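> forwarded from #structure-qc
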């Protein structure tokens, strides 16, 4: 979560796993814009968050700060997401993809992909050690 996140928003996301970013990613996956499908088909297609991805995220009302936060995600994590999306697309039209966020007690950020018969869940795990208050009612989860 980028700086500027309120405690209420942080706690809601912590309880549900749903963030503004996970909602934007689910919406983009549902729409499957041609430019993103093309990038998903390329190894390391999401590396360094290409302009087409940034533009699509901006269209889902993510702020510049939120998009820059995603850009900082480890490229290996973005590659895990890309591969999971390709696998989901290849699984057929009824295959859904959920994005979630959780905290864990480890020391590094990880992505877990759980694939079921008609559902792929991509979970972004951030370590509690990365949670940092910035000022009153402003929290960030560093990448």
């Amino acid at each position: 979560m980028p700086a500027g996140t309120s405690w209420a928003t942080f706690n809601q996301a912590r309880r549900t796993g749903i963030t503004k970013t996970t909602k934007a990613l689910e919406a983009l996956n549902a729409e499957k814009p041609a430019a993103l499908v093309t990038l998903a088909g390329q190894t390391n297609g999401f590396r360094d968050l290409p302009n087409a991805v940034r533009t699509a995220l901006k269209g889902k009302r993510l702020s510049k700060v939120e998009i820059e936060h995603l850009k900082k995600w480890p490229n290996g994590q973005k590659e895990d997401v890309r591969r999971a999306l390709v696998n989901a697309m290849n699984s057929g039209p009824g295959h859904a993809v959920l994005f979630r966020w959780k905290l864990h007690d480890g020391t590094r950020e990880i992505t877990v992909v759980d694939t079921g018969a008609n559902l792929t869940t991509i979970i972004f795990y951030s370590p509690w050690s990365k949670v940092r208050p910035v000022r009153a009612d402003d929290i960030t989860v560093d990448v």
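QC bot note: The helical segments are 7-16, 20-31, 34-40, 51-59, 64-71, 75-90. Residues 75-90 form the longest helix (16 residues).
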